[in-house]
Design goal:
single chain, mainly alpha, about 0% strand
Length: about 120
């Protein structure tokens, strides 16, 4: 009998753990945890203002990495529920549905802001 190798989180049909998602998307975890958190309005009136603050304060390589991560997340996501789950795991303090937006629409806006930097 050959021992089985452990599978990465999520490959067995279960959603990845929050810790696994933070490891997979480290710059988005930083962006959401430090800027688009429950106090995001300290950076301006909108979550996009908080993303702009991140883009101003982070190194260009970090902004580019965050942009690549949001691109990958949007490409891989299968539905809104999975995007909501990822936003929660990454400690995003903004709830898009409270403003009548989808998580995908919010992440599209994040992608647009990051692409401009």
């Amino acid at each position: 009998m050959t021992p089985t190798r452990p599978r990465p989180p999520g490959r067995d049909g279960r959603p990845p753990t929050p810790a696994a998602l933070r490891r997979r998307f480290p710059q988005l975890a930083r962006l959401f945890g430090a800027y688009v958190n429950e106090d995001f309005d300290a950076f301006g009136g909108t979550p996009e203002d908080a993303v702009r603050a991140f883009a101003r304060e982070a190194r260009p390589v970090e902004v580019a990495a965050a942009h690549a991560e949001v691109e990958r997340l949007l490409a891989e996501a299968t539905d809104e529920a999975s995007l909501d789950r990822v936003l929660g795991a990454l400690r995003c303090g903004y709830l898009p549905s409270a403003d009548g937006r989808t998580a995908r629409a919010f992440l599209d806006a994040v992608r647009t802001v990051l692409a401009r930097r």
